[in-house]
Design goal:
Layout (H helix, E strand, L loop, with lengths): L16 H4 L4 H8 L15 H6 L2 H4 L16 H4 L4 H10 L1 H5 L5 H9 L3 H17 L15 H4 L4 H8 L9
Length: 173
Amino acid sequence: MAELGWEDDSSGEAYDVDLIYTFDNEKINEYFLWENGPYPEYTHIPTPEEYYAMPEGERWSDDRTPYRPRYYTMTASYVDLVERTLYYEWRDSGASREEYPDTCIAVRFIKEFNISKGDFERANEARRTSMEERGEKPEDNPRNELYPVDLIYTFDNEKINEYFLWENGPYEY
């Protein structure tokens, strides 16, 4: 069993097992539409300044953040570049957010663990291959987005942050 903490395990929403086991994609897809869920409507995506001014416990509300999910999350392809326990301790300590505020997790990760560009590129390709094997594509879903490796390795926070803003991405929101 995979360790908890991956982006796909973070929603906290329980599945309707009976519905899932109907294998009726139309019903399942309808069930998971945002407007059919028990959650409040969101009409405003906070700016980065508004987001970071919120109490930390109120920040995560599905993808209602200033930046797309890949800005905040790392998947196994990247985490496996280091020992998972080290990664989780680092991520959960919050130290990297204090040292590098308003910085993409990939940049913090690379700096903390001294990840070479070549290794990071290979992890990006491993992520792409993993998705293709499941019939998924990066453009299908913002959680599937791959890192723009050349941009990440500029370490230019202003450009990276601008790139990851929802309104600058290829996804409808």
